[in-house]
Amino acid sequence: MSALSQTVVRPVDPVAQPRHGAQDIARLAPDQKGIKREGAAEDHGKRGPGQEIVEAAHSGEYNFAYLDEQTKRMIRRAILKAVAVPGYQVPFASREMPMPYGWGTGGVQVTAACLVPEDVLKVIDQGADDTTNAVSIRKFFQRTAQVATTEATEKASVIQTRHRIPEAALTKDQILVYQVPIPEPLRFLEPRETETRKMHALEEYGLMHVKLYEDIARHGQIATSYAYPVKVEGRYVMDPSPIPKFDNPKLSDCPALQLFGAGREQRIYALPPFTKVQSLDFEDHPFTASKADHDCDLCGASDSYLDEVITDDQGGRMFVCSDTDFCRCRREAGHIGRLGGEA
Amino acid sequence: MTLHHAQQTEFSPNIRLPDQPLLKVESLTKRYGLRIGCADVSFDLFPGEVLGIVGESGSGKSTLLSCLAGHLAPDEGRVIFDTASGPRDVREMTEPDRRRLLRSDWAYVHQNPRDGLRMGVSAGGNVGERLMAAGARHYGAIRDKAVDWLGRVEIAADRIDDRPSAFSGGMQQRLQIARNLVTGPRLVFMDEPTGGLDVSVQARLLDLLRGLVRDLGLSVIIVTHDLAVVRLLADRLMVMKGGRVVEQGLTDQVLDDPQHAYTQLLVSSVLQV
User: Mind telling me the catalytic residues of A?
Assistant: First the structure.
């Protein structure tokens, strides 16, 4: 019995899963009949997919992907439940990770539970591949799981992200893992956890609109620009993690499996592929996905989310794509922005 | 009369009779271990009626109100409310139904406005919360209604975006009343609504409450230890002692001609200025 196949939790029938992306969900329950990860068992003859894991564990200092198999099993169980109830926050026994809370302990645990040795991992932080958080987590999995890594969105099979959804369209073969600081969208409106759970259970979401009302009363418009609350399949109100509201429309109908992990708060939730996700709004103040009103100064893109970068003390500034991979690809394809020549 | 009604009910249970009680309480009992919170309380409350519950501290009047409003689970007895779909025992309702009732047909005015208001949310948001909970999704309409209700409780419209923490105690209490009445509840529970306010503010609040109750035809159950408050507001009075109702009747009747020794003591204890 291989290590990975022991991690199967319960006989979830993947065919009964209501949505697409079965390949992604199937990796959470890899030895179900009729579902195999492409080229997994056949290619390796008698070796199960867990064989490499055992080898990796023996060759390296850590178990495959750092967490022990029982922990990964527990996390997969939570993920399966989260996938079955889109938008519902599933409690899980979050472990201490070798990084501080707030640095993506939840996302790392979800990624660790999803990774298989054949995966290609991409990690982004605010859209960028080269920031501290992204580099650290990428190195962490390079070392503990020996998986291939990439900066190219379309080549990645697992993407762990903090605060952004990549600009490039995701596919059904990808998993997007979000790092979530505070999973409870009602947290700052209702401090009692017992009460917020009850509100979710009974679909009492009037309070969420009180927050949006306050925004309009104070600022003349819905000023919430990130962590903008959404309703999943007309049921659960969910915090999409602090992604800019520019990214909210991408949550809906996404072919990739989207998983959300909050380490400190010990919650996992998920959006299965092709889930309907609606941003909350008022009839007379509809939701708008906003971005800085500029083009990227490096690649000239007018439809990507931009970071504002202060360049000097004389008020100089430039706007650049927050998705570094997207910007690089465009520049390599010959697109040049206002300052693209100098940079 | 009684026979006539009984027949009507039998033949067409869906027709609402004008004098069918809005709330029917039958032998309600709440115990705290061996001690009694309130015992064997029964009464009918009719539409448009204001019932006062008076008694000293520890007499069980707050326990009774909490049991009625669903904040506490009574040990025995029935609380039957005349819902849109006919009379139903509140205790046998499912929790979603009960909570829906709490924010549509019922309202609860706390003694301390801080318990009933969201202190971090503007006055307009406080008033609008029940509307949004009931499904209102048009900002302009919600705001218009909030302005209207702030006007009705004598709060200037330009205070709509101020937080309750910037309001005086009396204003906070009036805001709490507006917040509760905005969805047009049929039954309002009030727990010492004038407690902690000075007498002139109390007088204005009572005036306001009396006007609202008359205009909207509200049914109110008001708990207080202030006999002047019930004299002004209540049609009927229940006097409680040691968790039991010792006397009930029309307000003037009970206050002017108290029969039970405790009621006599209570009435004679009021300081005459």
Answer: 87, 296, 299, 321, 327
Helix segments in A170-205, DSSP class H: 193-201
Does A90 have pLDDT greater than 60? yes
Domain extents in chain B: 20-105+186-268, 117-184
Say what the pTM is.
Answer: 0.80
What digits encode the pLDDT tens for the residues B24-82?
Answer: 999 999 999 999 999 999 999 999 899 999 988 889 998 999 999 988 899 999 999 99
**From the CB of residue B99, how many other CB atoms can be counted at a distance below 10 Å?**
17
Tell me which residues of chain B, numbers 104 to 143, contact chain A at a CB-CB cutoff of 8 Å: 118, 121-122, 124-125, 128-130, 132-135, 137-140, 142-143
- pLDDT value of position B204: 86
The closest CB to that of A210, out of B128, B138, B143, belongs to B128
Handedness of CA A48, A54, A55, A57 (dihedral sign): positive
Using the predicted structure, report yes or no on whether residue B140 has a pLDDT greater than 70. Answer: yes
Among candidates A204, A210, A282 on the partner chain, residue whose Cβ is nearest the Cβ of B125 = A210
Between CA B46 and CA B187 the distance in angstroms is 10
B130–A282: do the CB atoms touch at under 8 Å?
no
Q: In percent, how much of chain B has pLDDT > 70?
A: 92
Closest CA to B57 of B209, B191, B217, B212: B191
More confident residue, A325 or A53: A325
B32: enclosing H helix or E strand: strand B23-32
For helices B139-152 and B123-133, the axis angle rounded to 10 degrees is 120
In A146-205, which ranges are continuous DSSP H helix? 193-201
Mean pLDDT of A140-155: 94
A330: Cβ contacts below 8 Å, ≥ 6 apart: A296, A299, A300, A301, A321
**Residue keyed to tokens 């056949």:** A42
Tell me if A217 and B132 make a contact (CB, 8 A cut-off).
no
Q: What is d(CA B142, CA B14) in angstroms, rounded to the nearest whole number?
A: 33
Write down the mean pLDDT value for chain A.
86
Question: Which of A187, A197, A210, A211 is most worth mutating to test chain B (most B CB atoms within 10 A of its CB)?
Answer: A210
Other C-beta atoms closer than 10 Å to the C-beta of B172 total: 23
* Stretch among A240-244, B121-125, B228-232 having the lowest mean pLDDT: B228-232
Kindly state whether B179 is in contact with chain A, defined as any CB-CB distance less than 8 angstroms. Answer: no
Contact B128 A218 (CB under 8 A): no
What average pLDDT score do residues B81-107 get? 88
Q: Is the ipTM beyond the 0.95 threshold?
A: no
Residue B14 has pLDDT above 70, yes or no: no
* Chain B interface includes A235 (CB < 8 A): no
Q: Does A73 touch chain B (CB under 8 A)?
A: no
CATH superfamily of B20-105+186-268: P-loop containing nucleotide triphosphate hydrolases (3.40.50.300)
Distance CA A111, CA A127 (A): 17
In the predicted model, what is the mean pLDDT of residues A96-101? 92
Q: Do the chains contact at B125 and A282, CB–CB below 8 Å?
A: no
What is the mean pLDDT of the segment spanning A283-292? 93
